[in-house]
Amino acid sequence: MFMKRNNRNVKYSNRRGQTALIAVALIVFAVLLVAYSSAFTVDEAEQAVVVQFGAPVGETITEPGLYFRVPFIQEVKRFDKRLMSWDGEPNQMPTVEQQFIKIDTTARWRIVDALKFYQSVQDIPRAQSRLNDVLDSVVRDKIAESSLIDIVRSKDWNVTEEDLDRAMAGEGDEETLLQKVKTGREALTKLILETAQKQMPSYGIELVDIRIKRINYVESVQQQVFQRMIAERQKMAEQFRSEGQGRAAEIRGETDRMIAEVKSEAAREAEVIRGQANAEATRIYNEAFGSEAEFYAFIRTLESYRKSLGKDVTLMMGTDSEYFRLLRSGDKPSSPTDQ
User: Scanning 21, 124, 143, 200, which has the fewest C-beta atoms within 10 Å of its C-beta?
Assistant: First the structure.
């Protein structure tokens, strides 16, 4: 009986020890879970705001390090401290001359006061939406107060005659290009930035820079501008083509004149050479036949035979004709006149 009671006591003690061990383990786990849930870190590129039931608690955490919060009650909202980009949608805007153009802008911004940023816009998507409203409004107002020449050109850009020739500008284009720039694109961009920056502190945002990426006419005006440019280029092409044809005709005329002169000079020299050759040939004939008159008469007689006596030729003359003297005998004619 006593042994049985001891065994029961031992078993009871073991169970109590196991229960206590489990309880201690649970307590340690709970403590670790609470410690883990309450601790958080902030790195160099972040800033944080602790929120309890949706309301900010304490100041903005801007320095990197280890921090603590009330677990399960407080939440940490993290925000990037680095520069972020904003790209607006291209919008149609009128200039001071009521010329509708399409403006595409971009900006760089960052969060400088996370607490105010959270209280005003809460997160990045809402901040981008607010930037759309503010920046588009400021850009539209400043574009409406500016002329097209101030929007597209710098104030220190002076158009020269070489620029006009390089651009092949027409008469209307020259007048536009030679207009005096009052403010210029850089000053306009700076004015837009300064105006928009005044509205950013209330959102905890710093607007660092804003730029106009692209300027273009609206589609309806683009077609008119393109058609006018095509017509001007075609007109210039016709002018160049006409000048080229005129120059080609001039070159062909000059070439024909030079060819005629060369041919005339060549013909004259040929006639002179031919005359000199004939004179020289005559001289040589005279010298040769003058020294041998009988031989010359004999050769001339043979040549006359060759020319007059041939196929289908009939001669009617007496047998005692002097023309056949050489045929009747081997005697040579006495002189050329005897023929």
Answer: 21
- Which CATH code of 3.40.190.10, 3.30.479.30, 3.40.109.10, 3.40.50.10860 fits the domain covering 84-217? 3.30.479.30
Quote the distance between the C-alpha of residue 256 and its chain's center: 45
Please, are residues 82 and 45 in contact by the beta-carbon 8 Å criterion?
A: yes
The helix-helix angle for 293-308 and 219-291 (nearest 10°) equals 120
d(CA 266, CA 245): 31
pTM equals 0.56
CA distance 75 to 312: 138
CA distance to 112, 138, 167, 172, 239, per residue, from 164 (Å): 48, 34, 5, 12, 17
First to last CA, the chain: 193
